[in-house]
Design goal:
single chain, alpha/beta, Spore Coat Polysaccharide Biosynthesis Protein SpsA, Chain A, 7-stranded mixed β-sheet, 3-stranded mixed β-sheet
Length: 246
């Protein structure tokens, strides 16, 4: 395997979703700004990116985007570039729009409305950089076993072969792993990308067919905050333990 790449300095945070399943909480606040244990989901993601050396982060916005832009005015690190979307561009279109801002090297792409804890060893983002083989990969997805996907009630997204290549669940009743919404992508993944709105899944499928996509198994827990119940579970897991008098 080729040596790991330098630690990425740029990132994309996808914050343009509608958060429909988290209503009524998201009637008045965009989902990335929903607090979990006193800290917004968006700030948790940005703090994690900052901790691994990301210097510049592009954040796309749509629903109540002005609230996100105002919130981000107070952040010093990483440096923030806001990318407003008048019409939703989906995950792939949102990233493709700002590719010139993300540079020529691999960059992190993270959903703004997810949470995870690190588990043992190096942080997940550092592990992605260490595992990324520039000769063999156009994308590396962080996946988590179903047993560590807290609040998730789906059937899983992928299995992995012996080389870490993702295999979609397809019509199978279940798959071993859930995609976490955390990934490391090379700009060449977007070569010849569609115009306008499109899902990153279109690019994943092409990369899978070409043998250029891999999955890395997350060693901690991942929290699916898709519903009010999922938010409750994340709050219970991530809030600090109560103070016990000595």
């Amino acid at each position: 395997m080729s040596p790991s790449i330098p630690r990425p300095r740029n990132a994309m945070v996808l914050a343009a979703g509608l958060g429909l399943r988290l209503r009524p909480i998201t009637d008045m606040i965009p989902k990335p700004l929903v607090p979990v244990a006193g800290h917004t989901m968006l700030d948790r993601v940005l703090d994690t990116l900052d901790a691994v050396g990301v210097a510049t982060c592009v954040v796309n916005t749509h629903y109540l985007g002005h609230m996100i832009a105002t919130h981000l005015e107070h952040r010093m690190r990483p440096a923030i570039r806001v990318s407003p979307e008048r019409e939703l561009l989906d995950t792939g279109g949102g990233v493709a729009k700002v590719l010139p801002l993300l540079g020529a090297a691999p960059f992190y792409t993270v959903n703004a409305d997810i949470l995870w804890d690190e588990g043992p060893g190096a942080p997940a983002l550092a592990r992605l950089a260490e595992a990324f083989d520039d000769d063999a990969m156009d994308g590396l997805l962080l996946v988590v076993p179903l047993a560590r996907a807290v609040g998730y009630d789906g059937k899983g997204d992928f299995n992995l072969d012996g080389e870490g290549r993702p295999i979609r669940r397809g019509v199978a009743p279940a798959a071993d792993y859930v995609f976490t919404g955390v990934q490391l992508l090379h700009p060449r993944l977007f070569a010849g990308h569609p115009q306008g709105a499109f899902s990153l899944n279109r690019l994943y499928d092409r990369a899978i067919a070409e043998g250029r996509l891999r999955g890395l198994v997350h060693v901690g827990r991942w929290f699916h905050v898709g519903t009010v119940e999922g938010l409750r579970l994340a709050e219970a897991a991530l809030e600090p333990p109560p103070h016990v008098p000595q």
